[in-house]
Amino acid sequence: MHFIENKTFDELKIGDSAELTRTLKPEDIELFAVMSGDVNPAHVDSDFANSDIFHKVIAHGMWGGALISALLGTELPGPGTIYLNQNLSFRNAVGLGDTVTVRVTVAQKSAKHHHVTLDCLCTNQSGKTVIEGQALVIAPSEKVRRPRVMLPEVHLHERGARFAALMKATAALAPVRTAVVHPCDGLSIEGALEAGARGMIIPVLIGPRAKIEAAAAEAERDLHGIEIIDVPYSHAAAERAVALAREGKVDMLMKGKIHTDELLAPVMNSQTGLRTERRMSHVFALDVPNYPKPLLISDAAINIFPDLQTKRDIVQNAIDLAHALGIVLPKLALLSAVETITPKIPSTVDAAALCKMAQRGQIVGGVLDGPLAFDNAISRAAAEAKDIHSDVAGDADILIVPDLEAGNMIAKQLIYLAGADAAGIVMGARIPIVLTSRADGLLSRLASTAIAQLVVHARSRDLKV
Prior knowledge:
This protein is α/β, with parallel strands linked by helices. Among the domains are: 3-147, Roll (Thiol Ester Dehydrase, Chain A); 278-428, Isopropylmalate Dehydrogenase. 36% of the residues lie in helices and 23% in strands. The chain has helices spanning 26-36, 41-44, 46-51, 61-74, 161-169, 186-197, 209-219, 234-246, 260-268, 308-324, 346-359, 374-378, 380-385, 404-416, 442-464, and strands spanning 3-5, 17-23, 82-90, 99-110, 115-123, 129-138, 145-147, 176-181, 201-207, 227-230, 252-255, 281-287, 295-298, 331-335, 367-372, 398-400, 421-427, 433-434. Strands 10-9-8-11-18-17-12-13-16-14-15 form an 11-stranded mixed beta sheet, with helices on both faces. β8 (176-181), α6 (186-197) and β9 (201-207) form a beta-alpha-beta unit. α5 (161-169) runs parallel beside α15, α6 (186-197) packs across α7 and α10 crosses α15 (442-464).
């Protein structure tokens, strides 16, 4: 166990010193900005900083001051020290990658109040002074030796940033006429109307008018100018929405307060629904803290135990969605429990077959690898530890799960344990379907809508080519 131990006033001698060394990293600046609220663009905006006087991102001045404080409180004099006064002169900026050495030296002692003055000096890796000054403290009179507290790991994540980027990507696109099926609660109608207000969709609300108006009142939203199609119940709302889609009067469906199976039943009708030659599947789009890019997971909501041909459609649907999101050549990890083909584990055999199908052109537009365990799919370190070398391992854009149970568990673990934000749509039908959970908030609903809007416009571009 590591300990920190002080020097009492009586133990201190003129000339005693202590030092520490730190290298400035981007997360140091981000964490200091979060803690202090100081978002001066010189510290957090690289475009501005590059045009500023120092031509680079620099540390907050008090980052160096905090290092001085840390040295006084943990080393010299150490625990029990009371900080009274500090004067600092900032001589040179500290940029990313600079290594700063902080040194404090006892300069004066006053026995009357146990006051101690210490010279403070911070230098960079070139020996240039970046900060200098003096600190006045009350030195401890009693000896203290305590276990050094182990600090927690800190992971910084700007919640909603990637989803905000998705929504920004739709700003120049025309709104999509969208059938909102049974929006009879505050959350679902707020999501639809907010998406309409942002120019993402033109909402067509389908359901019992009285319930829709009551939901709008609950959400404190105005229905002026919004088209409402009055039908008596949720099943009728789903059937009417599908009929509008078949007639070409709407280009998206959005789930309101209605069970998923009730919404999808008329969609899947072989005679009057929205089926294509491809099997429909759900794709989660997750913004996961500590993963460097959006992560798609499929299928976790529709196909319970998909066979090989269904998995082929699930894979192609996910690739098509990735293309709509601007991922030119998505990397797909075909998940199983192990990385080797094992006949007793059918998902490993399916993974191998899917890879071969991609080689033969039965799946296009992505790079596939599998079977891969979850850790090897998203962690380069885990993949390298098992001597797995591929373009996909440790850098997957899409996770294809063996069955619905596995996908549902993975997605919800990432949401509830890892703090991921989730959006999701159904692919493989004639038009995309925004399929959110009743527990999803406004951000999830808007992000799901943005994804579907991007899909609609991507398909429109493909038809014009």
